[in-house]
Design brief:
The protein is built from 4 helices and no strands. The chain is mainly alpha-helical. It has a domain of about 80 residues. Helix 1 packs parallel to helix 3 and helix 2 runs antiparallel to helix 3. The longest helix has 26 residues. The protein is elongated.
Length: about 130
């Protein structure tokens, strides 16, 4: 009767290890840094949209798979989940660049640098 097809339902997350979460974090962060730089310099392009979408999908799958073990108190899984969540936060920050809006405005003026900070560090001693 049970023909040998052992496929899981698509809603059940696949099994992952904390090492896979850490490896995803390292690779995704490097790629996102490059994508962010290119989006700021050149503006949005189709391949960037596709890559951001793929990274979001992978991060969501990993977070879903790591979550139960992380919530049960396993420190390695919790650490891996935090890293995947950092990638998700980075993706949220980069996503507006895909619409061509540019970087978000800073909260304060950039012209007001701290007075004398570097001068005190590197200035002449009297």
């Amino acid at each position: 009767m049970g023909g040998g097809s052992r496929r899981r339902a698509p809603t059940v997350p696949h099994l992952v290890t904390p090492r896979q979460g850490a490896a995803f974090y390292e690779a995704a962060f490097k790629e996102l840094e490059l994508l962010e730089r290119d989006l700021l310099r050149r503006g949005p392009w189709r391949a960037a949209h596709e890559r951001i979408d793929a990274l979001e999908h992978d991060a969501a799958e990993l977070a879903s798979a790591l979550g139960p073990s992380a919530r049960s108190g396993d420190k390695d899984f919790a650490s891996a989940l935090r890293r995947v969540e950092m990638v998700q936060a980075y993706l949220e920050r980069v996503r507006p660049l895909l619409s061509g809006d540019g970087p978000p405005d800073p909260s304060g003026p950039d012209d007001d640098a701290p007075r004398g900070g570097l001068r005190r560090l590197f200035g002449r001693r009297r």
